[in-house]
Amino acid sequence: MKSAPLALLIAIQFLTIAHGQDKPAPTQAAPAAAEKASQPPAPVDYSYAWDQFKHLGTMMWGCRGVQSGASVGRDLCAFAPMVDSQWPDKNISADWKP
User: Fold this and answer.
1) Chain center to CA of 7
2) In terms of Cα–Cα distance, which of 60, 69, 68 is closest to 87?
3) Cα(49)–Cα(47) distance, rounded to whole angstroms?
4) CA 27 to CA 31: how far, in whole Å?
């Protein structure tokens, strides 16, 4: 059964070479990849802190990556003290989901 997909792949490769199409046709994804390359890389979180914020009139605790400020799973803050000193304002982070 594994030889059929391999034979099909070889046949397709042979047909593209036989018709003079040595290189694959350009795709629309190439410009998007070039745009992403010019943007700075997203920060990688290596430390996490608790953030207290107000949601629908209730004070809640969430865990955020210190470097990116992005909301992450509460388990990443499990051993951090539940103190809101990193983000003292009570605004919800833009990417928080209940």
Assistant:
1) 36
2) 69
3) 7
4) 9
Residue 19: what pLDDT? 56
Instruction: Give yes or no for residue 38 having a pLDDT over 70.
Output: no
Q: By the 8 A CB rule, do 72 and 44 touch?
A: no
| 3-state DSSP assignment of residue 40 | coil
Question: What span, in angstroms and rounded, lies between the C-alpha atoms of 62 and 51?
Answer: 5
- Bridge-based pairing of strands 58-65 and 71-72 is antiparallel
Provide the edge-to-edge strand list for the sheet that holds 71-72: 48-55, 58-65, 71-72
Location of structure tokens 């802190």? 49
**71-87: b (≥16 Cβ within 10 Å) or e:** beeeeebeeeeeebeeb
Structure tokens that stand for 24 in this block: 């694959």
Measure Cα distances from 19 to 7, 12, 33 in Å: 18, 11, 29
Higher pLDDT pick, 9 / 45: 45
* Position 70 pLDDT exceeds 70: yes
